[in-house]
Amino acid sequence: AATKLASAEKLMYFCTDQLGLEQDFEQKQMPDGKLLVDGFLLCVDVSRGMNRNFDEQLKFVSNLYNQLAKTKKPMVVVLTKCDEGVERYIRDAHAFALGKKNLQVVETSARSNVNVDLAFGTLVQLVDRSRGKAKIIPYFEALKQQSQQIAAAKDKYEWLVSRIVKSHNETWAGVGRKMQPAPEYQDYVYLEGTQKAKKLFLQHIHRLKQEHIERRRKAYLALLPQAFDALIPDLDEIDHLVGLGKVEKLLESKPDFLQWFVVLEETPWDATSHVDNVENERIPFDLLETPPAEQLYEAHLEKLRNERKRAEMRRAFRDNLETSPFVTPGKPWEEARSFIMNEDFYLWLDESVYVDIYGKHQKQIIDKAKEDFQELLLEYSELFYELELDAKPSKEKMGVIQEVLGEEQRFKALQKLQAERDALILKHIHFVYHPTKETCPSCPGCVDSRMEQLLGTRFTRPSERNQKNPLLDSTSVDRINLVILGKDGLARELANEIRALCTNDDKYVVEGKMYELALRPIEGNVRLPVNAFQTPTFQPHGCLCLYNSKESLSYVVESIEKSREGTMGRRDNHPAPLPLTLALVNKRGDASGETLQSLIQQGQQIASKLQCVFLDPAAAGIGYGRNINERQVGQVLKALLDSKRNLNLVGSASGLKELPPDVDLRIVMCLMCGDPFDAEDVLLPLLQAPGARAAPGG
């Protein structure tokens, strides 16, 4: 209870932990070795201590209070360890203070850092009356405020950590230095200390690592079904294996095993450095021993079993269709379903699958029935002799035909397709009186078409003829080179539209056959090499000319004339005329106006002059103001193919110098719309060849 202390040249200690470690802390000496005491904190432990009687402690505190009161110095009673306080002890301590005059009580907890500053602040206010009076807050209310303050500081600190720390490989030493200037870090460390700040950091690092491991695990598990599909796609190979160990041995024996898996020296994989090797996407082999991987293997095995069962169901259904007498050509699915379906079918496949199989089967039996019916018509050819040429048979005649054929099973097979059966009869009648390859029911499998294809592929052109005619050089029926001519963006716009109709590899289907289509849009001066029709790598087979105004039509005419001027005067090396098609496109405005009619008339005149085809949008049945449609594109390409075939045949025939003695060769030549062509170059060598003869009048 002394108020004057003397300890010359002694250090001031703030904590007993500093004893023996004085050099590690700031050293302060007592001023002049003397110290005056201005006030006292009278501490009372309200926790339940072992072998300690609280009443005895309170008696000791009471005696101590009497001694301190004699000093006339301010005094504050401090209840310590309130976080473990006993309610009776706290009441008794308050009762003790209440019996003293102006004795204030502060409930504290040093462990929770609750009201510690308040205890000292209250005493300072009693010493210095000029300071504002501190408000004393009960322990539990102060604890609540303290907890809220710590929670807010913790949230801010965790936000700071999550913003700065993005990798689970970060260390506390490096991150701590980065965070020290931040107020979020400083506030939390002030309230909770550095160790708790480090603990939260380590928790965040652990969470980042677990998230990283989980992402890798999900990526591996997502890749595992693909590995199973690639390495063990055969059910017979794995269906008899018992236990995952045998499956693992089978996987290791596969040649592509190391493309999918990696065998680590240390396990488990998530505790090794492989977890951070993001460039290596191969699956750790020990992952197969985990339950999720086993489930994926079982799912793979079940998938293969189900696929086999579904394939068996499809085969059984097809077999059922082929043997069922209830499935006839043209019978709808709704009528046939009840006769051919059973409950087992529905267990494994959706009805849409069966409908698809049934549709394909129907197509096969309908095509076969039509072929058989066509043979039947040929067998009864005498029925069609009495018909008038180009006349549609009367109902009476059709009745007679149907009556004669009605008893034939091949006629009855198309009972549900009467309209198509009648159409086949009319088509057969048309073929009887107009027997061409276009009207042939077997086209494109008829002999005429086959012969044309055979001639086109078997005739070869001599190299000297190729050198004279670049157009015939290395031209193949499987490729079409098309020049699109038009100014002001017309050529490029149409080229883009045609490419949109092609497949991904620039292929286009014409007459059921796939062709490689190369487009060369030209919109500038054709005398410049960049706009030339023909280049060392591009030999055009035809030109599609576009216009939508008088100016663009003039550009087309001038470009064609310039292109032809470049080939004139070279009789020994003149190419065959380039097939042209003129099309009116993209004219905005009223389709009935005089401008449209004028453009159509001008286009027709120019087409006649150039001896080429003219495409009129109105005549083609498409709306004016649009580009040419897909059907017209197909017509243009088909015309080019026909022209190419003719050129191939002409070029091949012109190279013949001698005919085999047992060959009777008949040649029919059509010289169609183009520049004047010297037919003698082709015909004379043939007529002069040994064994050749000209037909009368030929």
From TrEMBL:
Q: Which residues form the PG1 pseudoGTPase domain?
A: 474-649
Q: Which UniProt keywords apply?
A: Cell projection, Cytoplasm, GTPase activation, Nucleotide-binding, Repeat
Its GO biological process terms? Answer: regulation of axonogenesis; regulation of cell size; Rho protein signal transduction
Q: Where in the cell is it found?
A: Cell projection; Cytoplasm; Endomembrane system
Query: What is a single cellular component term in the Gene Ontology annotation?
Result: cell projection
Every copy of the FF domain together lies at 310-372
Give one Pfam family, short name only.
FF_RHG35_4th
Highest taxon, organism lineage: Eukaryota
Entry coiled-coil feature ranges? none
Which molecular function terms from Gene Ontology are attached? GTP binding; GTPase activator activity; GTPase activity
Q: Which InterPro entries match?
A: FF_domain (IPR002713), FF_domain_sf (IPR036517), FF_RHG35_4th (IPR057284), P-loop_NTPase (IPR027417), pG1 (IPR039007), Rho-GAP_domain (IPR051978), RhoGAP-FF1 (IPR032835), RhoGAP_pG1_pG2 (IPR045786)
Where does the PG2 pseudoGTPase domain start and stop, copy by copy? 666-698
Q: Which PROSITE patterns match?
A: FF, PG1, PG2
Does the keyword Manganese belong to this entry? Answer: no
Q: Which PANTHER family match?
A: RHO GTPASE-ACTIVATING PROTEIN 190, RHO GTPASE-ACTIVATING PROTEIN 35
Could you tell me what this protein is called?
RHG35 protein
Q: Which gene encodes it?
A: Arhgap35_0
